[in-house]
Amino acid sequence: MEKPLPTSRPNWEANPVATPLPKVRTVGKLESPAIVIEPSAITASPITAAPVSPPPIQKLTTASVGKKQASMTPLSTSERFNSVNELELDAYDEISTSRLSQPLPGWLISMVVHVTLILILALIPLAQEIGLPFIISVSQGKDEATQEFELTKPMDDTNDTAEEGLELTEPIVSESAVSLLETLIGGGLPTETKFTAVAVPQIETSLSGRSGQLKSTLLAAYGGNGDTENAVAEGLAWLARQQRSDGAWSLRGPYGNGGFSENKPAATAMAIIAFAGAGHHHLDGQYKTNIAKGLKYLIAQQDSDGCFATDTPDRQMMYAQGQATIALCELYGMTKDGSLRNPAQRAVDFAEAAQSDQGGWRYIPREDSDTSVTGWFVMALMSAKMAGLSTSRKTLDKVGDFLDSVRHDSGAQYGYVTSSPPFPSMSAEGLLCREYLGWERDRAALIRGCELLASEPISSDTESRSYYYWYYATQALHHFGGRPWKKWNDVMIVELPKLQVKDLKEKGSWPPQHDPYGSAGGRLYATCFAIYCLEVYYRHLPLYSLKK
After folding, report:
1. 530-539 pLDDT, tens digit each
2. Residue 386, φ and ψ in degrees, nearest 5
């Protein structure tokens, strides 16, 4: 049965009057709660093999009452998307064991068995920390039945506060332990006794890496360091100083270089997401008061249909809605605070009811689709799944139909709408959606797409800034892992902290200047998106390492 369409939003069909914007250098078309650049307003020179002019990026930060247009020029580096080297899948290779061709002495078999048991026991705390079932399979000989034992630990309703010491250098599963085992068994376990440890992936565990020992381990394993954590800490401190007396955050100020229009629900949601990404929530920790006040403001905006943004301009509403849904779902998933469950579920129900027949979302519920807005709602629904809220598989399945309609290069790249060419930001957003919707890591289109993203790295150069593209590419590449992620991260850990303001009033923030959408989203937009990038190591558990 079709879900009822929310009715409390007045005049959804009204279109704002178009007014021109000053010419900006951009990476594509922007759709943000504050600025709209239509595909029809963009001109681009012909693109070869793998077209890549910077995307129709949508800044989720600001809102403008009118329809804005801006002329664009392609990035000087976009042509690099047209050539790609073959990618080796080397990140999550499983270590295979082969049988010994000759009998082994009894003392060696005994030692192998005992060492193996010790290693399994050492891995159990990690599985319990993550919250995954840990299954041990034991069999004797190739024809004997396998016995399985499951060791689980109930997930805590509360999260530990983030630890300051982040000097760990060991990967999640110690390579030294694997090496020791291989050395002892000389290339394989005896055929008489075999042990297999399997961590069973569950999407509900994706938020569990944001605090405690697991946060420190993930940070070290995926390439974060003290500089990235210091940048996050300074960024959150700056955000806390900008909160208004009513609990909301603003796109316009009180800081310098604010956006040119206002969208308080979007700004508040973006700030809350930044705090939550580092493990902070409203029940405990350094910023619990800030987050609690922001939540109170945000929930007060929600109507009976689940919409948080009824007072924002039509074309900005759905960006704010998607972000607010993510904020509530993440905090509910992190704390299981019962007072958040109903508001979060109403927001999820609104999202599913607002999906268009094309399979995506855009400015008005049930009308049309674009990749930018759709990406936010995919992440909203995935955040709901992570939190254990009720979601419809049918809704997520339909998203694939829309993505198929905007894909290029066999799915390695994506456009803004069906008729538009591919852009880096939309490609990054589309690939992230594909990862969450079930694409396997060895899919050729995903391999090629991630290699293309890695060829357009973060840069502090004034002509190459795009926080929106960086945000989506960072997530997609982190999940994919391997050489593309290392290539991207090696640059990010240098360039992004370097861009952060180091002193005076705006210390801890990131400058919006030279970003194609910086004038719309302002300093808060730039700062939140930079923080999201630097929290990526632990914000969500990596999808493909879970599967492996």
Report:
1. 999 999 999 9
2. -60, -35
